[in-house]
Amino acid sequence: MATAERSFQTAARETAATTPIKVLFLIENSDVSSDRRVRMEALALSEAGHHVTVICPRQRGSPHHEHRQGMSIYRYPLPSLVGIRGHIIEYSIALPMTFMLAWLVLAREGFDVIHAANPPDFFYLIARVFKMLGKKFVFDHHDAVPEACLSRWSGFKLRLTRSIALWTERATFRTADIVISTNESCRRIAIERGRVDSDRVFVVRSAIGKKEFLEGRPRPELRRGRKHLVCFLGAIGPNDGLDYFLLAINHIVFQRRRLDVHFAIVGDGDLLPDIRRMSDRLYVGPWIDFTGFLSDNKAIADYLATSDVCITPDPKNPFNDVCTMNKVVEYMAMGKPIVAFDLDEVRDTARGSGLYVASNDPRAFGDRILGLLDSPESRRRMGKLGRRRFNDTLAWEHQREKLLGAYDYLIGTS
Fold it and tell me: For the structural domain made of 220-393, what CATH number should be given?
């Protein structure tokens, strides 16, 4: 880095450290209490002295407005619907409600920056209005929506949804003052497809803190009397691969005749009822615990601490290839070896702590699980590698500094 560039960044950091700003977070696909990444970003900015307000959908039981952990949170009712028609209805409600509440926040509390997380990529419409009033726009690029369309639809639906997704993505990148990407793949999309200057794109990974799961302890009863426990942690949706996992379990139990392995599916999602029915059709239900959503980190940590192998069954497709799965980092934080399909970003994240299945073959996936279960030394070695990489590079403590550095740049260029 040139001396002039270093001096500029140093000056920007010093200016930012003495210049608190007001940040308005916009979320559409979850309540902030359920979105760990956005919640931790908001808390980091609040702890750094900035005023933080959040507008998000309301989950059942949450107040419409509250002050919590240094944040002011405004919520609006929003149905969760599936399919293209459902998305149209959902966005038709979310966009005007968010726009209206943004004006309310401006009048009550004020804001200098809009920080919008995707999906969807429609909040640039709101940002453009407020940019005319001198506000800045930060695009927090969580998901590559055009790639999600490639992985979910075909034919006319694909052509329609992807053309809209590419258009709104380009408009969002053009509107953003800076872009925060969850990984290097999303950073490349911003630079190459979005034509954003590279110095305005910052990688801030989704992660947990170093101490978050340390209270977890092995609980032998979670193995249900069997020798081994294999654990899945995360959402259960259309791209998460639980159908592949069930087919792998069927292969392990009935083709490989391994009755000494128990499985835990820790999480919830729109497809959980379908996955439960599929487990019954495959006769593997007695070997699986479906925990549903667990709000208690201690309970989650106990499952991970007890498990011998953790899995990421998300199949290889254009969308999953550019995603960093939160569960991968959580497995690494607990020092657990991972079996995954060979996804670009999963491989880059887990590296030596993972074994990668080259094709979307559930039988090969099951065989890799068994290979690790039968090799305690490999499990220990891989777990240590994952834990070290988490502590040295991936933990939220490192990502927090990158987030604050991105805001230093934003403030320094104001």
Answer: 3.40.50.2000
Domain boundaries, the chain: 3-207+396-412, 220-393
Asked whether this chain's domains 3-207+396-412 and 220-393 adopt the same fold, the reply is yes
Sheet with strand 65-68: strands edge to edge: 65-68, 71-76, 51-57, 22-26, 113-117, 136-141, 178-181, 201-203
Asked: is 3-207+396-412 a CATH 3.40.50.2000 domain? The reply is yes
| Tens-place pLDDT, residues 43-93 | 999 999 999 999 999 988 899 999 999 999 999 999 877 777 888 899 999
For residue 131, give Cα distances in angstroms to 59, 112, 258, 259, 332: 30, 10, 61, 61, 40
Distances (CA, A) of 251 to 274, 354, 398: 19, 21, 40
Confidence of residue 302 (pLDDT cuts 50, 70, 90): very high
Contact 209, 37 (CB under 8 A): no
Quick one: pLDDT at residue 48? 96
> What would the DSSP string read from start to end of 327-374?
HHHHHHHTT--EEEE--HHHHHHHGGGEEEESSS-HHHHHHHHHHHHT
